[in-house]
Specification:
Strand content: 25-35%
Distance between the termini: 27 Å
Number of strands: 4
């Protein structure tokens, strides 16, 4: 089964917040089997369910261990939602 995950990371009170966000994204991009898409509002991760959830949760834990305060807003939906549906 595949999954689609949308993530937004808000490192609170961090001077170097952009570098922390990009480091998080780059680590996810290095995982074989995951498709990672970014835009100005969030990051989307697409892939096999267990692989995607495992690595996203590991990366969230790593950020929480490194930063004093970081908020993640996450959406999880089954299936690959990386393809835009045509308007009917």
């Amino acid at each position: 089964m595949n999954i689609s995950i949308e993530l937004s990371l808000y490192p609170l009170a961090e001077q170097e917040f952009k570098s922390e966000i990009w480091a998080f994204i780059k680590r996810l991009r290095n995982i074989d089997g995951l498709k990672v898409v970014t835009n100005g509002m969030s990051t989307q991760v697409f892939g096999e369910y267990d692989l995607a959830v495992k690595h996203v949760m590991q990366e969230i834990k790593l950020v929480h261990e490194k930063l004093d305060a970081a908020v993640f807003v996450c959406k999880f939906i089954n299936g690959d939602r990386s393809h835009v549906e045509a308007e009917s």
